[in-house]
Write a structure and sequence with these properties.
Mean pLDDT: 88
Structural class: alpha/beta
CATH class of the largest domain: Alpha Beta
Largest sheet: 6 strands, mixed
CATH architecture of the largest domain: 3-Layer(aba) Sandwich
Distance between the termini: 40 Å
Number of strands: 11
Shape: globular
Strand content: 5-15%
CATH superfamily of the largest domain: von Willebrand factor, type A domain
Low-confidence stretches: 4-12
Number of domains: 4
Radius of gyration: 26 Å
């Protein structure tokens, strides 16, 4: 804690309070953060957004995964009591728009709602189940999590039945073949347990395939294709297999999960998947290393050119719902030339590296620049060295640097700085590649955190700033003045009605933004819609 003299000084000059003390008169709105500093606390629904978008996987610098998840579960329950419709609608929106790093947090939150003691809450959540659990793996997770809380009930049974019956036979067949089992559940288990009644021969044939392994002529095209493939796989010569595989992929629209693993070592198999557009965007991104290793993505090959074109297609990226973090992680892994697991190695095709960098940029919303003077301030303190939830390869500081490159390309008049307990000249600029930027920021020494530094630095150096953008985990603990106080002083000294946007990188209830100041905003920094939200706020 601060000394008597420091506490007395703060009382005499409320414009400057140590970050270890609450601002006088605002004590009830402020809490001690995980690093011992004092910050504002955000409302439950803003906190919910952080959880839904960032998730709890891996925890953060200060808290374990279990602790973050436990806090998030209690948070979701509070939000449901406060307004269950608003809570569930936001869960669905984040999931459908692909705002979350992964869909897991939305599934967890919806399973809590679906297990509520309040029937209306439970029904509304289960009515939205198919919107969040869009694919089989999501369904299996949702079933496991919901049964762990409440078990079976009529509404739950009807929701699972509806998931199977409401899909057209072709889509359902694809799900049955592509995702046979996950998380201890299979389609066979669910179909036998919840017994959806087929309303046509195609549905009946699809369900027979899932439960008994039987393939009837009425089954969907992809099921027949999988059966056809299995039929000739062990009966023909090895030399004739590639041609038959390619023909089968073309005829039946098979995806890579439906191909025997031995054949996935053949570049011709991947060539056929790419040519026939049956390799989903997310799967393509995850398998870039594998396809490069087996020769499919050789320099200037037809498949490599096609893959680069796909990575440069904004509409394809948008439809895939891939998160920017996933693309940044794919870039880092692909450029390293080796997989995170196993011994797979490859020589990166730099056309694909460049296309991945472009895809990361395209995964964010496009906006019209405001033309205002913008300072992007990156927290590079010790706590920002922790991995972004859901990623084993990207630290919060690396993501913040990559995000600053995206944002700085929007606003032509800008400056990028780093800070911990002191100002740090990062030496990065928009002309650098993402790989150069992430490498550069990874080598910066750790330190404590003073989130007021971007503002006090601008004040001391007489830098005119319309908009401050601070990318941080909000664990400030070092400064002699709170960021909100510093901004008030800056506004008074410069006459500029500056705004402050705080982009959070971790799941917590802390924020340096003053919730009572309309010129400050707190948002989730890893959301793909950050440029749009910033643009509206600054305009």
């Amino acid at each position: 804690m601060s000394s008597f003299v420091q506490r007395t000084s703060a009382a005499l000059n409320p414009r400057a309070t140590s970050q270890h003390e609450p601002i006088p008169g605002r004590e009830t709105e402020m809490v001690v953060n995980s690093s011992g500093g004092v910050t504002f606390t955000i409302n439950n629904f803003d906190y919910l957004d952080r959880f839904l978008i960032i998730g709890s996987e891996g925890g953060n610098y200060y808290s374990s995964e279990a602790k973050v998840t436990k806090s998030a579960i209690e948070l979701v329950k509070k939000c449901l009591v406060e307004d269950y419709v608003k809570t569930i609608d936001r869960i669905v929106e984040v999931s459908v728009k692909g705002l979350g790093i992964k869909n897991n947090a939305a599934i967890i939150a919806l399973s809590i709602a679906a297990s509520s003691d309040h029937r209306s809450t439970r029904k509304y959540a289960l009515d939205k189940m198919a919107d969040v659990a869009r694919i089989s793996t999501d369904l299996f997770k949702f079933v496991e999590m919901t049964r762990a809380q409440r078990g079976n009930g009529r509404l739950f049974k009807e929701a699972v039945q509806g998931w199977y019956l409401d899909k057209d036979p072709s889509s359902m067949g694809y799900q049955l073949v592509k995702y046979k089992s996950r998380d201890g559940w299979s389609h066979r288990d669910l179909l036998r347990l919840y017994r959806p009644k087929p309303s046509n021969p195609e549905q009946q044939a699809n369900f027979r395939y899932a439960v008994k392994g039987e393939i009837h002529s009425e089954a969907s095209k992809v099921i027949c294709g999988a059966g056809y493939l299995q039929g000739f796989y062990n009966k023909v010569s090895k030399d004739s297999l590639p041609g038959l595989i390619n023909k089968t992929i073309e005829m039946y629209g098979l995806s890579w999960e439906m191909i025997p693993s031995e054949l996935l070592a053949e570049p011709s198999t991947w060539d056929a998947l790419i040519k026939n557009k049956t390799l989903p965007f997310n799967a393509m991104v995850r398998n870039l290393g594998r396809m490069t290793a087996n020769g499919c993505l050789a320099t200037m090959s037809t498949s490599a050119i096609t893959v680069c074109e796909i990575l440069k297609d904004k509409e394809t990226i948008k439809k895939s719902r891939i998160h920017p973090i996933a693309l940044l992680m794919a870039l880092k892994i692909y450029q390293s030339g080796k997989g995170g697991k196993g011994s797979l190695c490859w020589v990166p095709n730099y056309s694909i590296v460049n296309a991945l960098e472009g895809a990361f940029q395209l995964s964010f919303d496009n906006v019209i620049p405001t033309g205002k003077r913008t300072l992007y301030a990156l927290d590079v303190s010790g706590s920002m060295s922790s991995m972004v939830p859901g990623s084993d390869y990207i630290s919060a500081r690396e993501f913040s640097a990559a995000l600053s490159m995206v944002l700085s390309k929007v606003e032509p008049i800008h400056h990028i700085m780093g800070f911990a307990h002191s100002f740090i000249n990062l030496g990065i600029h928009p002309g650098m590649s993402l790989s150069e930027v992430t490498r550069k920021i990874s080598g910066i020494p750790f330190g404590a955190t003073d989130c007021s530094l971007p503002i006090t630095w601008a004040m001391a150096n007489k830098v005119p700033v319309d908009n401050f953008v601070v990318i941080t985990d909000n664990e400030t603990n070092y400064g002699k003045i709170h960021p909100s106080q510093a901004l008030a002083v800056y506004r008074k000294q410069t006459g500029i009605n500056s705004k402050l946007a705080v982009l959070a990188t971790s799941v917590s209830s802390f924020s340096i933004a003053d919730p009572q100041d309309v010129g400050m905003i707190d948002m989730v920094g890893v959301s793909p819609d950050v440029p749009t939200v910033l643009n509206k706020f600054f305009a």
